[in-house]
Amino acid sequence: MKKITKQTYLDWYENMLFWRKFEDKLAAVYIQQKVRGFLHLYNGQEAVLAGSLHAMELGKDRMITAYRNHVQPIGMGVDPKRVMAELYGKATGTSQGLGGSMHIFSKEHKFHGGHGIVGGQIPLGAGMAFGDKYFERDNVTLCFMGDGAVRQGSLHETLNLATLWQLPVVFVVENNGYAMGTSVARTASHEEIWKLGLGYDMPCEPCDGMDPVVVAKTMDKAIALARSGGGPSFIEMKTYRYRGHSMSDAQHYRTKDEVEEYRKIDPITQVKNVILSKKYATQKQLDAVDEGVKKRVAECEKFAETSPYPDLNVMYDAVYEQEDYPFIKHKL
Amino acid sequence: MPRLSDTMEEGTVAKWFKKVGDAVSEGDILAEIETDKATMEFESFNEGELLHIGIQEGGTAPVDTLLAIIGKKRGRYFWITYFRRNSPR
């Protein structure tokens, strides 16, 4: 694994803070009706992404996830302005404004969505890994899912075949405690989700999803195994989200004290504490980073605000290949 | 009146946690608002002073109605609502 250095910590701090502020901004513009539809935010789970990115080979390895998917593409190198524009439904967005919040894609950066169907991305992730194995490429696919998705049949069918075919894929469960508003305890006979891998003879383990260092080490092991032909792994990241499942979640299923408890092990605070205690940077320098992050988020907002909406005929062109269709006029 | 759910058309202010003149920080809960789905807490995305309350407790109004003004006196105002729908069509 790449060494975890002073620069790693500084990068983690800046990136995770940017992701969080980016999501906060989305919440703010959502209530102003600038972003429509649904909106699922990542606040609190940042360490899972930061640690995973450190263990990945960017430009080579793939990522696919569910609908809590705004910051992953940013981490993989997609211009955050284009992600913000996608949420605004603007032509400059990653999918020309046609995908919206749940469907961020960048084939170029090997970020394969952005999927709204719970558990739908699991077989897709295995399929991409199958493609890489079939064509003898040594790319690894990271397939993320939530704790609700693991109760879908698609997971179990996929794990079976992924082990049988020894696919180069790492299945990562981001267990944030709640499938929408239902806690894991209410829907499962045991709460150790990682044990689901045992039934398929797949290497599996739980992992502290609030600490990027632990995440990076665990993911590195799994990715190395997949890359060397050792097959898939199944990892449960124990993490937490501070905001609701989506913007319309009143969060009556948990107490404020519970949220505050998790804020004590907040990934950004943890990284910040290391930076300060090891004197990697001063508080003043970190304040400057905070200011820079705020400015970059504001630039994303401005870019999205000022970008044009897509032309109406783009909707047609994205669905139909032929220039005209008997029932629908091409130029709307 | 903020849109706090994807299907919300109007909202009722159940409770104000701040009164005019109070200082407001980012993330502070301003009010409880009843939507079509549930009673939600509405947090501030701006900081400053609560200068004006547009909808009193118990009041119902459609999304986008002026709910409150936060800002600095004689400074820049942050309006917690928008009069115009930001939609192209």
Q: Overview of this structure, please?
A:
The complex is a heterodimer of chains A (332) and B (89). With 332 residues, chain A is an alpha/beta fold. Chain A has twelve helices and seven strands. Chain A has helices spanning 6-31, 46-55, 71-75, 80-88, 121-134, 153-164, 184-187, 212-227, 256-263, 267-277, 283-306, 312-319; strands at residues 62-64, 141-146, 169-175, 178-179, 182-183, 204-208, 233-238. In chain A, the strands form two sheets. Chain A has a five-stranded parallel beta sheet, with helices on both faces. The model of chain A has no long low-confidence stretch (mean pLDDT 95). With 89 residues, chain B is mainly β. Chain B has a single domain, classed as RNA polymerase II/Efflux pump adaptor protein, barrel-sandwich hybrid domain (OB fold (Dihydrolipoamide Acetyltransferase, E2P), Beta Barrel), CATH 2.40.50.100. In chain B, 0% of the residues lie in helices and 40% in strands. Chain B is built from no helices and eight strands. Chain B has strands spanning 10-16, 23-24, 29-34, 39-43, 48-53, 60-62, 68-71, 77-79. In chain B, the strands form two sheets. In chain B, strands 4-3-1-6 form a four-stranded antiparallel beta sheet, with no helix packed on it. Chain B is elongated and about 35 Å long. Chain B starts with 9 loop residues before the first strand and ends in a 10-residue tail after the last strand. Chain A binds chain B through residues 24, 27-28, 30-34, 36-38, 246-248, 250, 252, 309, and chain B through 2-8, 35, 37-42, 45, 63-64, 81-82, 85-88.
List its traits:
heterodimer, A: 332 residues, alpha/beta, Rossmann fold, five-stranded parallel beta sheet, two-stranded antiparallel ribbon, 7 strands, 44% helix, 9% strand, globular, B: 89 residues, mainly beta, OB fold (Dihydrolipoamide Acetyltransferase, E2P), four-stranded antiparallel beta sheet, 8 strands, elongated, disordered C terminus
